[in-house]
Amino acid sequence: MSGPSGDCSMQTTQEIRVYKRRWQILILFVVYSASNAMQWIQYSIISNIIMKYYNVSDYTVDMTSMIYMITYIPLIFPASYLLDKFGLRWTVITGAFGTAIGSWIKVLSLAPDRFWVTFVGQTVVAVSQTCILSVPARLAAVWFGDNEVSRACGIGVFGNQLGIAIGFLFPPMLVPSKEICDIEQGLQRMFYIVAAITSFVLILILLLFKSAPPLPPSIAQAEQREKSESSKEVKNFLSSIRRLLSNRGYLLLLFSYGINVGTFYAISTLLNRLIVNQFRDGEEDAGRIGLTIVCTGMVGSIVCGILLDKTHKFWWTTVGVYICSLLGMIIFTFTLDQNVGIYVIYITAGILGFFMTGYLPVGFELAAELTFPEPEGTSTGLLNAVVQIFGIAFTPLYRYLLNIWEEDLWANVALCGILAVGVLLTILIPNDLRRQNAKLKA
């Protein structure tokens, strides 16, 4: 293959070219993804304040986070079909439009008796998420060359993590834990800022985002284009789902990936409770610790993406990062229980975040390897659907364990045990790198 902006010939009739515009498309997607993800945890991270203002239970506040998981499961297949049939541009426009509309609905919820309005807005934003989570692997494959696909996927996932980081950091800063009128003013600031940002992102996407380059950036993508052009979309989509569900390695990855990310969802949703239980008036610390988890995870995503591009050791990297996620959870569990000081919690939470959220693009890329030449949007979409199921199961389970045991230690030990099962399942995944084999044969 020629350089980043050159052309080359291949044994098929399809010409290969990598375009400089790929980085603009990727950065725009990162901003778009962040604008949606920052709303996932914006209520739960200040759950005690939201409970006071809207006079609702902690379970009801947690539902504003879980609605992201609940809506994803039935809608991922229509969203994956939308991505396969209409391409990246229309999928991203649909998601950006829904995110902006949901954000403006929240602006109308500024009254203590309007929790239902804010929940409607959150639901619209959550539905729009289905047009985001499956995109990074597809965008990386469609726009980037063989030697930078994993890196691009890691940066694409970085957008979701960036949004979660913003969602952890700013709500505790913008919404004070004071009188009702002060809380209302804080919520007003937060809702208007988010609505303005999502509207601006929608305009940028309408003007600048493109579905695919004129020529494919890699041999693997050229083969996939030729296959998709000769197939009927609906029949091909359903056949792809059947093939994925009969792939043993992919099924093992579905469960192990779901365990890892579902555990992360449970910890993130209940982080306010964990920290406030240990440190009085710790709302802002909870937000900053969540920020630390996600920021170190962003670094982990990029590091793992570069490592995969350099070594192509997809199976070994996945197993190694998963084991480190388990070790990070064990360290976090016992430092949190020992009351060693808030700054130690920042450090151990950062270690946990580096590996647990750094694992996200690694799982995406291993899925693409195990399932090639199936569309990346379908394989990652199904992967994310299973994640939501585990998130829905683990979050109430974690809350229940925190309620029945006086100490948080045993609830966290239970999560460690669940992650250990995920490590075992990951080790059982066969090292079947089909995308790499196709590149070697070409």
Automatic annotation (TrEMBL):
Keywords: Cell membrane, Erythrocyte maturation, Glycoprotein, Membrane, Phosphoprotein, Receptor, Transmembrane, Transmembrane helix, Transport. Gene3D superfamilies: MFS general substrate transporter like domains. Its main location: membrane. It comes from Cardiocondyla obscurior. PROSITE patterns: MFS (PS50850). GO terms for biological process: erythrocyte maturation; heme biosynthetic process; heme export. InterPro entries: FLVCR1-2_SLC49-like, MFS, MFS_dom, MFS_trans_sf. The chain crosses the membrane at residues 25-46, 66-83, 90-109, 115-137, 149-170, 190-209, 249-267, 287-308, 315-334, 340-360, 381-398, 410-429. PANTHER family: GH15861P, MAJOR FACILITATOR SUPERFAMILY PROTEIN-RELATED. It is found in: Cell membrane. This is Choline/ethanolamine transporter FLVCR1. One of its GO terms (molecular function) is heme binding. Residues 25-434 form the Major facilitator superfamily (MFS) profile domain. It comes from the Eukaryota.
